[in-house]
Every structure is written in C-alpha cells, then in structure tokens.
Structure prediction request, 621 residues.
Amino acid sequence: MSVIYQLHSTNDLREWNSFFRKGATSLKIDPHFVNTTPALLLSHDKPILGVQAYSSLADVLSYLKAAPSFIHGKDIDIALCFKSAPKELCVDETSKDVVKWNSMVDDFFIQAAEVVQQVKEDFDITLTFVLDGDGKPCDCKANRWLPWISVWIVKDEFSLQCYNSTEGFCKRFTILNDPDTSDWAAMATQANHYGKFGSGNHPLQLWEPDSQAQIANFVNGYVTGQAKGVPSGGGLAFAINVDIPMFDTFTSRTLTGVNARGFNVVVEDGDPTGPLRATDPKLVYDSPNELTLQYWISITAIKRKLTMSPFTSLQVGLPEEDEVEALGGIDPPYEPRNPRNEYRENILEHLGDLPVASTSLQEVGELSFIFVSVGGKVYGASKRSDELAFTNFRLIGLGSSVHASSLDSTLLLVTEGNHCYNSHIHNTRAFPLVCDPKTAREDACEYALDYSVGTAENWSLWLEQQPDAVLTPCNEFILHGTFSGGQNPSGALFPLDAKSQAEGKVGVMVAHEPYPLFVESKCGTPYVGDTGIVVSAFASFVVTDRFVGQDDGGRGEFDHFVRVLKILVGVVLGLVGYWLSYLYRRKRTQEARQAKVSTYFPESQREEHERDGGALLLREL
Prediction:
C-alpha cells in the first residue's frame, strides 16, 4: 500500500529548497494569466500587481536547471494548474488574449522539454510536467503539448466522457484528481473500481483534506477497497496544503507498522475539565529507543517510559508516581515557568519587564541558547561558553509557549501559537506570500504547534547574522513548520536508523496537551475530543553547514568537476575549430593572391611577391 502526498499551491519558490529537503517529490503550481503582464505568474488567487512580486514559470525552469543536490537522482512531478485562461479560449482563436495565452504556454512547453532533458543528463532527475486546470487537453487543446498527460476531475461533460474511456483525447486523462467532496466511497466499490484509473499506475489523487479525522476516513476507505480486491491504481495521494510533518503525524494513527510515517498517540487519557486533567508534559531522552514522558495530574508528578522502534512500534509503560526532584525539577502547573536565575536580569534588560509566559534554555557544546515567550511573541538569543550573558536577543516569531532540546549537535525548538505558514488559506492567497514574515498579533494561529530543527552552529549563525529575519518554512539555515495543534509542547530528538542518518535525518518527538477546541483549525485540525497527553513524532532533515548561505546549485564535487570539464572541453574544441577555420581561410586567400601574381607579374617578380605574402601571413598569425 502506498499513501503519499502532493504539495498544493507551491507558488513561492523561496520555499522550494525547504520542502524538497523535507522529502517532497510531487507538487502543484498555479500559472496565472494576467493579460497585462508578459509572463504567467505563480499565484492561486488573482495576482495583485504593483503590490507583490511573484515567481513565474521562467523562474521554475531556472531553479530546475541549477537543481540542488538533494533532488539529484529523484523523480519529480509538477502539475501545472493553469488559472484564468481567456474565457473565449476554444471559441475565438483570433482573440488577442487567446493568441497571447497560447503563445505563452507553447513557449513554456518548448523550453520545459529542453530542461527535462538537461536535468536528466546533468542530475539524473526524471522530471514530469502534468496538465491541470485550464490547461487540460480537451476541445481545441486536445492535441496541444503532447505527450504531457493530464489530471481528471468530475467537472464537466468533457470530464465525464473520460472516466472509463481511453479513446481519442481521453487517453491523456490518466490521473484521477477529485476533491474530498466527491463520493470516494462509491468510487471504491467493486462495481466502479475508480473507473479506468483503478487499473492505472498513477496514484489516485484526492484534494484537499486538512483534518486528521478526514484523512483517516479516506485512508481507511482506500485500504478497505484494496483488501476486497478493488483495483486501486498506484496508491492514494493526498493533495495537501499543510506541512509534510503534519501529514506524517495525521496519518500515523491509521498507517501503522511498516506503513507508518510517524507516531501520534494519546498516552494519558485524562479528565479534560476536572482535577485529574493531565498537564505540562515533558520529554527526556534516555537512549536511541527509549524516552521518558513526565507530566502532572493535579499536584502529582507522573512518569512513563516510551519504548519505540521508529516508526513501526511505540510501547507506553505503566504510570509511576515520583518526587519532583527525581523528575528533573519539572514545573508544576501552579508555578510560573522561569529561566535560570542568572539570566532573569539578562532577559529583563533586553525585553523589558513584561510577563514571561514561557522560557527554555539549552546548551549544545560550546553554545548556549535561550528562547523566551513574552507578550505573544518569541525571542531567541545565543552565546558561546566564554560569554557571560546573552546580548543578541531578537524576535524570531509568534507564540505563547517554547521548549528547546538537543541531540549531539542538533537543536530543536517547539512552540505553540505561531503563524502556520502552510495552510490552504495561506498558500492560496495572493498577498502576502508564504515566505513573507508574519509577526503581527493578528497573524498568530491559536494552538498551532511548530518545530524548528537545525545544527547548533546554524542556529547561532542565523541568530547573529540575520537579525531582521523570523523563522519561516523558507529558512535556509533551519527547517521550520507546523506539525499539529495543541498546547504546552515539549520536544526531544532521537536518532533514526543508519540509512536515515546517512540521509541527514533525525527523529523529532513532541509531547503536548491536545487540541482544545471542537472547531476546524485553519492550520489543519488534529483529532478533536482527545484528552490527556498526546505524543507526536516524525522524521526531519537537518540542514547542515554546507547548505548555509548562497546555494551554488548544490552540486556535489564530482558533479561540479564534470560540469566544469565539459565547459573547458567545449572551449578548447571551439578554439581549435576557430584556428583550423582561420588557417583554411588564410590558405585560400594566399592561393587567390598567388593566382593574381601569376596573372599580373612576370615570372621574375613572382618570388618577391610570394615572400611578402608569406611574411604578411606570419605577422597576422
């Protein structure tokens, strides 16, 4: 069974490095036609010209021609969901707008074909473009942009013709791509078996659920159909707007064992309103396969062992009561969380005498980090061991709760209440874009749980060198995103298997109180009604120092050497060809001169003119 995802409305190219590092290989962009601009702009909603600078299809090709190393050797597919094509398309082919739109798409098709070949030769990337939106190949477009295939959506008469047909233009509609409002249960029956798509090799694509309960229902329906022998295509692909780790945690109660992408379990099913409510969790790393979960029930401190095999099994030990000292001094819920006394004055000096909601201090080798939530905003600072105090406090985002932890040289920060940058509303709007920083109070997303992972050195460099930046999913130093919803998160890192470590990945586990509302969240909704302590876990790539700063395309040393060698060989061959051509032309010129000498000069004077011609040739060479 294969349950995967496609990232939707990935129109801000500043985020591409980040989601490719997180493992994305399938995405959808929205080339938007505006008849007053010379390019197809990437925006789901109508672009706001003069206010926002947008990426274009040309920028997509430029990015791919200098593809970063972390997508070398991969299969990448990009769906082109064309927006706002001229209404008279296929009605009036002579319309100025129709001529312009067709020309723009045709030009991109020709250039894209060259890039597909180039990235295969240079980077072993298998790049596929898929038609979607206003570019679907029907009516007057039936034979345009061959051999690109297309998605199929139950939308109009043309679509209905192709559900079971592979004749004529229908043969290009090869990917089922229906919304979550369609009757997927009916399509999954033995009688329907997803039409012709059930017998195909492409995943069945479903857009755009973003609640954990919805996703679980669709997965269960797909698995049930498979178990009954219903032809089910090449897997089930969720078209998502949320961050990849959120999809990993949202599917992990349904996808278990070898199919699991992470963990998401309720460990302590407490009383959500009464005195036995489980609160203030804390995770402590013990060994590669074991962590300790600590939390409070009223005034009683509890701890439980978590034994795991990522991500196939997670066993929760029996609860044990213990003294606060034995639990590492965790704060009971009735005491405010304060930083170490020696840094309290340090915080007051730089952030003022505002109520401190949450603080977290973490030491990683020679580096120390402090994170503070004050007035709904999160500040961070770093220092080296020979420095007495933190001096570079700076705003890094929004939030009401912070917790930092580390493993070896990697630092994790988890927060509650930041802006969730990747969501349906935030991905699709024309302004502001995903990568634009959001620091106003009204930008805060209540109960959104965020992670930020990077090497301690990268954290320190970012805090020192980019004082005006905040954490977004587009950060080149630190991977950042929203993984779930809840309260009071506490995180821990743990090592994964050798293969994952070789790929630069680390395990992220977060214990938190559950999402407290019974309404949909614009950031992606976890299961509502959970009580107690929820443990979520997923794998995260760690950005290493070699990716910091200006990216040269991310090529490995050998790839870079081969590319430089090709250029040098080309230059040398060009020079040799020019030299041979020059000699040939000079020889012909000399022969012509000698012919004239034979015609106009007596034999006694020819030798003198030949010497002069030879000397002239040598001087010019």
User: Anything to note?
Assistant: Confidence is low (pLDDT under 50) at residues 325-330, 332-337, 546-564, 613-621.
